[in-house]
């Protein structure tokens, strides 16, 4: 009895991924691998050793396997950035000083130094040009906006009007007074418009 309990306890400690057989783990690894085929079920099945002709059907079958789905969800949770990690990345983007990586007198960006210092993720794209590479960085002002919204520094206000143009939330005598003021203003504007239209041209 004791031996059985210990065996079950050891199995419970294994992760969903560890409980899969070798081929299933290969499928999960290929499905989540970084690259152009990430989240491609068919390519993952091929990488796991299934025949190309039947890879599509095999992939569909594997994705309905509860144990494989549990392992994928488990790995995705591990790979996913936490809220704090997201804010750190945005802060890097907002505070990054490009001047520290400009080479003089060419004013070219020292990409190697950036990558070495851990700022490679701030580079959005690199395009070859006639006189050197064109480097585009992620927008620091966009990062500042996201950080500001996270800290509720910017408050957006929207006024919603009800029937007759009266702001919602007004009731009773206040609503009637607001409606009367709105109608008076409309009447004045209409009279002014009629006066302008009947004035003789110069």
Summarize the structure.
By secondary structure, this protein is mainly α. Helix content is 54%, strand content 8%.
Structural account:
The protein is mostly helical. It folds into two domains: 78 residues, Terminase, small subunit, N-terminal DNA-binding domain, HTH motif (Arc Repressor Mutant, subunit A, Orthogonal Bundle), CATH 1.10.10; 67 residues, no CATH class. The strands form two sheets. It has a two-stranded antiparallel ribbon with strand order 1-2. It has a two-stranded antiparallel sheet with strand order 3-4. The chain starts with a helix and ends with a helix. The relative contact order is 0.06. The mean pLDDT is 81.
Q: Give the ordered list of helices and strands.
A: HHHHHHEEHEEHH
Q: Return the CATH architecture of the largest domain.
A: Orthogonal Bundle
Low-confidence stretches: none
Cα distance, first to last residue?
110 Å
Quantity of strands, as a count = 4
Largest sheet: 2 strands, antiparallel
Shape: extended
């Amino acid at each position: 009895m004791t031996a059985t309990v210990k065996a079950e306890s050891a199995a419970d400690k294994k992760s969903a991924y560890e409980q899969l057989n070798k081929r299933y783990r290969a499928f999960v690894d290929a499905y989540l691998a970084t690259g152009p085929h990430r989240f491609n079920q068919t390519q993952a099945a091929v990488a796991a050793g299934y025949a190309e002709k039947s890879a599509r059907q095999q992939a569909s079958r594997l994705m309905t396997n509860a144990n494989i789905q549990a392992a994928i969800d488990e790995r995705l949770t591990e790979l996913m950035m936490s809220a704090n990690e997201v804010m750190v990345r945005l802060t890097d983007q907002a505070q990054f000083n490009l001047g520290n990586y400009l080479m003089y007198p060419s004013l070219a960006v020292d990409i190697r130094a950036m990558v070495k210092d851990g700022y490679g993720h701030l580079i959005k794209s690199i395009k070859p040009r006639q006189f050197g590479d064109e480097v585009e960085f992620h927008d620091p002002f966009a990062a500042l906006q996201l950080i500001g919204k996270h800290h509720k520094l910017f408050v957006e206000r929207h006024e919603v009007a009800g029937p007759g143009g009266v702001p919602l939330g007004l009731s009773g005598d206040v609503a009637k007074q607001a409606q009367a003021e709105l109608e008076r203003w409309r009447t004045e504007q209409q009279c002014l418009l009629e006066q302008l239209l009947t004035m003789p041209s110069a």
